[in-house]
From TrEMBL:
Stored SUPFAM superfamilies: alpha/beta-Hydrolases
Protein name: AB hydrolase-1 domain-containing protein
InterPro entries: AB_hydrolase_1, AB_hydrolase_fold, Epox_hydrolase-like
Record GO terms (molecular function): catalytic activity
Chain segments carrying region Disordered: 1-20
Ranges for domain AB hydrolase-1: 96-329
Annotated Pfam families: Abhydrolase_6
Length: 357
């Protein structure tokens, strides 16, 4: 598969879980439900195409996206950076910070975010510099070093204490690069369908500009997005086209092409040599039927990380937090349970959020 396609992580809603493992989500029972698009209560910076989306979970999370200023050393003015903030911050447990995959956005977390929040976790969803819904009108650099510094300055300004960093697909490479360079900012790591063994896109700075721009034009195209989305999931339920539209919504912003080309021509991520430098406790989560990155790499990653446990999700493709959000949330909560959280509060949160049927 082409590198751009294999790193894609367009979202899709969850199919029904097997009966013996099904969970009822008390506070989020309408995960994946459709709803009419509201007209005027979305953030003004979102593309107008958001009003055509029918997915209820996506609409609710979209309404919570905001931009916060992040000052970096590579931009004269603060970058208005998109994220979803927790409803309340707490000091009893480490915050959970959700990244996303290649050329995606925080909307990738539309099904799992409310489950984690309902369980009592302080949950953030952050758009990686160059993707998502940040304002990049000034065209700041979006190479690896800039992405790393931007995330660090976001953490330093708003989170301010060690976090559980969650990276799906290429977001796992972002998380490894960040954790190795800023270990004081990361308490634990969670990798989902981790794309960490690719060797980047190689340096294309001397290539004629029209070549990467042509590639980006294809990346944005509806046929490729349809194909990539179909490939990413074990089972595609109804509403497939709507989910493709959710996955490409951020591509409609005017600076998306420039930001993506800048990332591509500067080489992309190659964190193979950084994996063994990770010191934090890690959860490796993988779909057993991942059609993009073989789950054989899950075993390799578990072995190479000094402190990692592996969990797999049955009948699930590349993005468990989208396709099987209840199972993904349960694995996250099990991994974090008891560490820095009051056990009584944790038990109460779990019992009120995940109820076996």
């Amino acid at each position: 598969m082409p590198p751009l396609l294999t790193l894609s992580s367009s979202p899709a809603p969850p199919p029904p879980a097997p009966r013996r493992a099904r969970f009822r989500v008390a506070a989020s029972a309408d995960v994946g439900a459709t709803a009419p698009a509201a007209g005027n209560d979305f953030p003004s910076f979102l593309p107008r195409a958001v009003e055509r989306i029918r997915d209820g979970a996506a609409l609710r999370l979209a309404k919570r996206i905001e931009r916060v200023p992040v000052q970096t050393g590579f931009s004269k003015s603060p970058i208005p950076s998109s994220c979803v903030r927790p409803l309340k911050q707490q000091q009893s447990a480490d915050p959970v910070v959700l990244l996303h995959g290649f050329d995606s956005s925080c909307l990738e977390w539309r099904y799992t975010y409310p489950l984690l929040e309902d369980a009592g976790l302080e949950t953030w969803a952050v758009d990686i510099l160059g993707w998502g819904f940040s304002n990049l009108e000034t065209r700041p650099p979006c190479d690896i070093v800039s992405k790393r510094e931007h995330l660090y300055q976001f953490w330093r300004s708003y989170i301010k204490r060690p976090m559980v960093l969650v990276g799906p697909s290429l977001g796992a490479a972002v998380a490894i690069d960040f954790a190795v360079n800023y270990p004081e900012a990361v308490s634990k790591l969670i990798f989902i369908g981790a794309s960490v063994y690719a060797e980047g896109t190689k340096d294309m700075t001397r290539m004629p500009k029209f070549v990467p721009y042509a590639g980006v034009f294809v990346l944005k195209s509806l046929p490729l997005r349809l194909f990539a989305t179909r490939l990413a999931f074990y089972k595609i339920p109804d509403g497939f086209f709507d989910w493709v539209q959710i996955g490409r919504l951020h591509c409609l912003l005017p600076w998306w092409e420039d930001a993506t080309v800048n990332f591509m021509i500067t080489g992309g991520y190659n964190v193979i040599n950084q994996i063994k430098q990770v010191k934090q406790k890690c959860l490796v989560l993988w779909g057993e039927d991942d059609g993009i990155i073989s789950n054989k790499q899950a075993y390799r990653l578990q072995q190479e990380l000094p402190s990692a446990i592996l969990r797999q999700v049955g009948q699930c493709g590349h993005i468990p937090h989208v396709e099987k959000p209840r199972e993904a949330a349960k694995h996250v909560l099990d991994f974090l349970g008891g560490d820095g959280v009051d056990k009584a509060d944790q038990a109460s949160s779990l019992s009120s959020t995940l109820v076996s049927t």
